[in-house]
Design goal:
It is a single chain. It is built from 15 helices and ten strands. By secondary structure, the chain is an alpha+beta fold. The protein folds into four domains: about 55 residues, no CATH class; about 80 residues, Phosphorylase Kinase, domain 1, CATH 3.30.200.20; about 190 residues, Transferase(Phosphotransferase) domain 1 (Transferase(Phosphotransferase), domain 1, Orthogonal Bundle), CATH 1.10.510.10; about 70 residues. The N and C termini lie far apart (about 65 Å).
Length: about 450
């Protein structure tokens, strides 16, 4: 089928759904769902889309009336009325050679089903675009990128792709079925040992390194995108939906787009700087996962902040070292984690392979390649995010040193004046520190730039 035929079919499907939706608004709210399902002349996928439109219509808030008591647009009287719960036992998609068993998960972009593949006989996971036949070109491109990226990787920790196909014009991906739960759920249920952490991170890092060798970056590494097999405890990297080919241009991502998950995205991602994203961006994501496993929290955390504020925190604030939260964390692992989480991509591991090498060196009892921060670098990081306090302390100390030098060589000041200067400088430093503490964000997640 040509591109023009496909576009025409999508337009016709949209017009049919719109017409059916408008007709359903003439039906009483409690009878709309049965009425739509009774329209057997339409495909089931189109019926499901209309039901989603009705659900969204019912959840919309009425527009505000203007001062004259009227609204600027005609508002259907059905908006705001409760809609009966949708029947969750609706038929699953019918895909040749697969028998859908149940729905496993539903996210912002896709739906994953558990299925039985008939030839050969095995379980599979079927992923489809949530918006179905109404998916935009960008959604379809990202979906195809995910399938192609995962299919190119032959690492044992990447969920293998069985098939990429279409059903009623909607693309689907058939993948290996992993009987387990995601790492986020595992961590939520309880802490895991350091040895388990290193085993998981080494396997995941090797999988990402395999992608980097093929010029593919994941861009959405986080605990919920890592599955842990219930039987073998083996980790699997999933969801390459935001993957990017470093050597290819893509219309699915443009400058200013924020790609990733707050709490696990690198500063350059939070800035929406597409040109700055690289293999080092994934290294930050791996470091954020390691940080979560070591400390029980993401590197940047602010429960009260919204998404915009969270992105600002990622861009402006350094990460608190894991050992500052848990002193039992080995110094070498703390160094590895902090190197991954450097705000400057050039200071991180260049790619995931270097991270894996250091993890393996530590497990072998050998010295790692990463070096702890120098004293000068630590002072710079500390002062960079407390400019007011650091300037105040520097000025006070400079004043005191000047006074000491002047008194030592010229001795023209009395002892009482010397004591007064010392007390003043000490009070100034302590007062500035107390003021900084008062401005500290909750739980030490970030510092106000005093």
């Amino acid at each position: 089928m040509s591109g023009s035929d496909s576009t025409r079919n999508q337009r016709e499907a949209y017009e049919q759904a719109q017409a059916l939706f408008l007709q359903s608004l003439e039906i009483t709210p409690e009878d709309r769902v049965p009425w739509v399902l009774a329209q057997s002349q339409y495909p089931k996928a189109l019926q499901q889309q209309v039901l989603s439109m009705l659900q969204a219509d019912a959840e919309c808030e009425p527009l505000q009336a203007d001062p004259g008591g009227t609204t600027s647009h005609q508002i259907p009287e059905t908006i705001g009325r409760p809609l009966p719960e949708l029947d969750l036992n609706q038929p699953f998609p019918e895909i040749e050679n697969y028998e859908i068993i149940e729905e496993l998960a539903r996210g912002g972009m896709g739906i994953v089903y558990k299925a039985q593949q008939l030839r050969p006989q095995r379980l599979a996971a079927i992923k489809m675009i949530r918006s179905g036949m109404f998916a935009s070109s960008i959604e379809i491109e990202r979906f195809m990128t995910e399938a192609n990226a995962a299919a190119q990787l032959d690492d044992e920790a990447v969920v293998p792709v069985y098939e990429l196909g279409t059903v009623h014009g909607e693309p689907f991906i058939a993948m290996k079925f992993i009987d387990g739960e995601d790492l986020e759920s595992v961590l939520t249920s309880g802490a895991i040992s350091l040895q388990e952490t290193l085993t998981i991170m080494t396997a995941v890092g090797q999988a990402v390194a395999c992608a980097h060798q093929r010029d593919i970056i994941h861009r959405d590494l986080k605990p919920s995108n890592i599955l842990i097999d219930n039987t073998t405890q083996r980790p699997w990297v999933t969801d390459f939906g935001l993957a990017k080919y470093l050597n290819q241009e893509s219309s699915a991502t443009s400058a200013g787009d924020i790609m990733g998950t707050p709490g696990y995205m690198a500063p350059e991602q939070a800035l929406g700087d597409v040109d700055m994203t690289s293999t080092a961006t994934d290294v930050y994501g791996l470091g954020a996962i390691l940080y979560r496993m070591l400390t029980g929290r993401p590197p940047i955390q602010s429960e009260e902040a919204g998404v915009a504020k969270h992105l600002q925190l990622i861009q402006e604030h350094e990460v608190i070292a894991p050992r500052a939260i848990n002193r039992r964390i080995p110094v070498a692992i703390n160094t590895i984690c902090m190197k991954c989480l450097e705000s400057d991509p050039a200071r991180r591991y260049a790619h995931a392979g270097e991270l894996v090498d250091d993890l393996r060196l530590f497990q072998a009892g050998e010295a790692i390649q990463a070096k702890p921060l120098s004293i000068g670098r630590r002072i710079y990081r500390w002062a960079r995010h407390r400019p007011g306090l650091s300037i105040t302390w520097a000025a006070a100390i400079t004043l005191y040193l000047y006074h000491v030098i002047y008194r030592t060589f010229f001795q023209e000041t009395s002892a009482e004046f010397h004591v007064a200067v010392a007390i003043t400088v000490t009070a100034l430093c302590c007062g500035a520190w107390v003021w900084q503490q008062c401005l500290t964000r909750s739980r030490g997640a970030a510092w106000v730039l005093y």
